Amino acid sequence: MDTLPRHSNTGITGDILIVDDTPANLRLLAGMLTDQGYKVRPAPNGRLALTAARAAPPDLILLDINMPGMNGYEVCAALKADPQTRDVPVIFISALDQTEDKIEAFTLGGVDYITKPFQIEEVLARVKTHLTLYTLQRQLAAANHELRAANAELEASNADLNAFARTVAHDLKNPLSAIIGFSSLLESRFTRMDPEKVAGNLHRITVTGYKIRDIIDELLLFARVRQLDALEIGPLDMGAIIAEVLTNLELRIQEAQAEIVMPETWPVVSGYPAWVEIVWVNLISNAIKYGGDIAANIPPRIELGFTTSGPTSSISNLPSSISNPLIPNPQSQITFWIRDNGPGLLPEECAQLFTPFTRFHQEKAEGHGLGLSIVQRIVEKLDGQVGVESAGVPGKGCTFWFTLPESH
Question: Top-level CATH class of 15-118?
Answer without folding.
Answer: alpha beta
